[in-house]
Amino acid sequence: MKQLVKFSVASVLALSAFAVQAGTLQDVQANGSVKCGVSKGLAGFSAADSSGTWTGIDVDVCRAVAAATLGDATAVTFVPLTAKERFTALQSGEIDMLSRNTTWTITRDASLGLNFAGVNYYDGQGFMVKASLGIDTAYDLGGAAVCIQAGTTTELNLADWAKSNGIEYTSVVSDTNAQTTANYDAGRCDVLTTDASGLYSQRTATNDPSEHVVLPEIISKEPLGPVVRQGDDQWFNIVRWSLNAMITAEEIGVTSATVDVVSNNPERERLMGRSGNTHEYVGLSSDWTYNIIAQVGNYAESFERNIGLSTPIGIARGVNALWTNGGILYSAPFR
Amino acid sequence: MKKDNTIISFLNNNETRAIAFQVITLLIIAFVFYSGIDNLIANIEAREIHTGFAFLSNRAGFDINESMIAYTPEHSNLRVFYVGLINTLVVAVVGIVFATIIGLIIGIARLSNNWLISKLAGGYIELFRNIPILIQILFWYNIALITLPSPRGSFNFFDSVFINKRGIYVPEPVSEPGFAWVLIAFVLGIILTVFMRRHFKKKHDETGIHTRTIGYTIGLVLGLPLVVFLLLGSPMHLDYPSLKGFNFQGGKTFSPEFLALTFSLSVYTATYIAEAIRSGIEAVDKGQKEAAAALGLTQAQSLKLVVLPQALRVAIPPTINQYLNLTKNSSLATAIGYPELMAAFGGTVLNQVGQAVEILGMTMAVYLVISLCISLLLNIVNKKMSIKGR
Q1: Measured distance CA(A205)–CA(A50) in Å, rounded
Q2: What pLDDT digit, counting tens, does each position of A8-56 carry?
Q3: Interface check B334 vs A, CB under 8 A
Q4: Which chain A residues are Cβ-neighbours of B24 within 8 angstroms?
């Protein structure tokens, strides 16, 4: 009988503990790390190297949040997720934030109990074919077999585009980037379609990258950005403004090398937390932005280090340049 | 004093205790369920996750490459559910048929007196039974993709069957008006066969004269429809696949995903069925065969009337269990992208809609219903096959 009582008390405790929802920031500080959902491997966005270190522009957003909340950009637990797993993992609390080349759409933002905290890469869906096919426009793809990743906006965009252009196709759907690329590389399909950035990234993963061409058509808008659970506004603000800090730092010209330089530019001093009290509004210490820039760098540093022209992926800034340089990258002001 | 004693003896009563513990257990189970569901609902509400089944009627918006029923992205999510369900059933049925055939052959081969055949069958069983099914599926799928040629270099069999990385293309029979008569003749043939057999059985019972019916059966079931088919001037033609642009068009296509999945499931499940059949045959006492021979039954009659009925009693229940396993294992198709229920509905629709509770609930219910149907079948067969007390 005693055993039984113990058991029922324990089960009541277990279940009620289950139901309590703590603030994500408190959880993160208690755990000492940010649990960040990333892809299973998309070079330049989120991929682990041979020593298990994650790099990429999506990874840098996770690191920025860790630097802001814990003062240590390496205090991140990466959780690799397939496209199909990502939202459930975030909804269920398995991860604290999702930074996994995820397109911001109204359905996802408004019906899944999630919030998109901003855009860290403006993308669009494109097509890649083998150069030997001799095709130079996506409108010649009628009758082709197309490799797609399951559960993405890509699947929906392709169906819409094909319908409005009267193009017939066969879809070959796989769960992961790796299997999709492998199928394309093995010749299971004629065309690989995903976000253009993903095409450049996956091209580096094929046997001979020079044998593949990315077609010029971009058939959709794909704003990619970090996602958090709905209902924790403080955490939402932290993620949003960690990303904004990186963008603003590029705009002002602060890099990881020049964080310690004290200037007479008031905006720069505000951003670096040396004046004003914006840190109190997000509930963090005054050096949170300093830590982001010192440990992760500004947006331009992250971009050039991971996917810029000097990397094998070789993407130009294009629309992802600052608004002042002809792009659409824009942060609300630190004020 | 006396009253206290009654209470104590009441509490010490075994029956009361048993009931009390059962009530407590039930309450705990009910509480756990209630808390779980309450917790779920509270969390869904707190996060403002959209709920309900309205999504089923929404436009699906994505393509599915294999479907037995008409499907375009314009169809609803409910249609995707049906497409997935039918694909699951197709894999299950095809897999069960092939697993049974392979299992039967291997199981009998295992008992062969020929050393080589018996060892080969044993090796087959040990090899395929001990490698996880998921790995086998991925292995055969990737092997097919790596080794087969591209569409332009297809293996060509008489310009009608083509094999390449994109699948196996075969001619598809297309019926013309009048073909219905052939089907009617086929059904008529089956009905006549039943009457014919009844007639000869009656004759056997009354006179003891045995008549071989196999020739009549073939004539009625196959010959009759064939005669009708020829009389009507062959009201059917074949649609041949041909290379147009990137891919073959026309004919019937079996995709590498479907082939890899059904092949792996059949080969894997066949090992268990083979063992079930072997154990069934071995379970029949040698004396039974000897007794049948002593009664003057031929080898075939002894197998048909004495050995098999007893062997099947042992072999059928584990075999049907394997049918159940095969059906559930078909959900591993999600790894290679064959659009069965779990991949198309429990995967893609779930990701596009985001309502995990509803969609996974529906998916689980389907597997549960399929499994319960197979179990029900098992119970019926068991009842029929069980030794009848006389």
Answers
A1: 15
A2: 444 444 444 443 456 899 999 999 999 999 999 889 999 999 899 999 9
A3: yes
A4: 4
A113 close to B (CB below 8 A): yes
A173 CB within 8 Å of a chain B CB: yes
Closest Cα in chain A to B332: A175
Residues of chain B positioned with their CB less than 8 A from the CB of A158: 62-63
Q: What is the DSSP string of B125-186?
A: HHHHHSS-HHHHHHHHHHHHHHHSPPGGG-EEETTTEEEETTEEEE-EEEE-TTHHHHHHHH
CATH code of A125-220, in short, is 3.40.190.10
ipTM score assigned to the predicted complex: 0.74
* pTM for the structure as a whole: 0.79
What is the Cα B105 distance to its own chain's centre? 18
- State whether A143 and B249 contact (CB < 8 Å): yes
Between residues 32 and 51 of chain B, which touch chain A (CB distance below 8 Å)? 32, 35-36, 39, 42-44, 46-50
In angstroms, the CA B354 to CA A98 distance is 15
How close is the nearest chain B Cα to the Cα of A169, in Å?
Answer: 9
Nearest to A322 by CA among A248, A224, A226: A248
Q: Domain A22-122+224-325 in CATH: superfamily?
A: Periplasmic binding protein-like II (3.40.190.10)
Q: Do domains A22-122+224-325 and A125-220 have the same CATH topology?
A: yes
Which tokens go with A324?
Answer: 């002042």
Strands (E), chain B: 155-157, 161-164, 167-170, 172-175, 236-239, 242-244, 247-249, 252-254
A106 within 8 A of A81, measured Cβ to Cβ: no
Q: Which residue, B108, B346, B167, B330, is CA-closest to A85?
A: B346
Best CATH choice for the domain B77-125+263-385 from the list 1.10.3720.10, 3.40.50.150, 1.10.600.10, 3.40.30.10: 1.10.3720.10
Give just the sign of the alpha carbon dihedral A9, A14, A19, A23.
Answer: positive
Residue A159 to residue B347, Cβ atoms within 8 A = no
Nearest-CA distance A58 → chain B (Å): 21
Burial class of residue A15, CB neighbours in 10 A (0-12, 13-18, 19+):
middle
d(CA B372, CA B364): 12
Domain boundaries, chain B: 2-46, 77-125+263-385, 173-233
pLDDT at A93 over 50: yes
- Per-residue CA distances from B143 to A20, A130, A182 (Å): 49, 21, 12
Is A4 in Cβ contact with B142 (below 8 Å)? Answer: no
Cβ contact A218:A196 at 8 Å? yes
Rounded average pLDDT over A167-186: 87
Count helices and strands (H / E) in chain B: 14, 8
DSSP secondary-structure letter at B211? -
Angstrom CA distances, B205 to B296, B297, B298, stand at 18, 17, 19
